[in-house]
Write a structure and sequence with these properties.
The chain is of the alpha+beta class. The chain has a single domain, classed as Aminopeptidase. The protein has two helices and five strands, in the order E-E-H-E-H-E-E. Helix 1 links the parallel strand 2 and strand 3. The longest helix has 16 residues. The radius of gyration is 14 Å and the shape is globular.
Length: 90
């Protein structure tokens, strides 16, 4: 996570392919959100995720994040165009 002036950015959450879908990401996010709420209660919490990453977006929404904005054509990778979604915690 990165602490900015008035907000906290959750920067990366990576789960090895063989361990995805087992609840590890949710447990990690819940622990991280509790840490942020206990230590930075006045700061806005946000994250970014590529729009094709539907499982991550579903998890983030389950945890209370809402869509804030989409950066269209954020990057190109192997001939694909990737959009990025910014989400904030309600």
């Amino acid at each position: 996570m990165d602490i900015e002036e008035k907000r906290v950015k959750i920067s990366r959450l990576l789960i090895a392919k063989e361990h995805r879908g087992k609840g590890f990401g949710e447990k990690m996010m819940i622990a991280l959100l509790k840490f942020i709420q206990n230590n930075y209660p006045d700061l806005k919490v946000y994250l970014t995720v590529f729009t094709f990453n539907k499982p991550a977006i579903t998890l983030y929404k389950k945890l209370g994040f809402i869509d804030e904005k989409i950066d269209v054509d954020f990057m190109r990778y192997q001939g694909e165009i990737w959009d990025r979604l910014e989400m904030v915690l309600k």
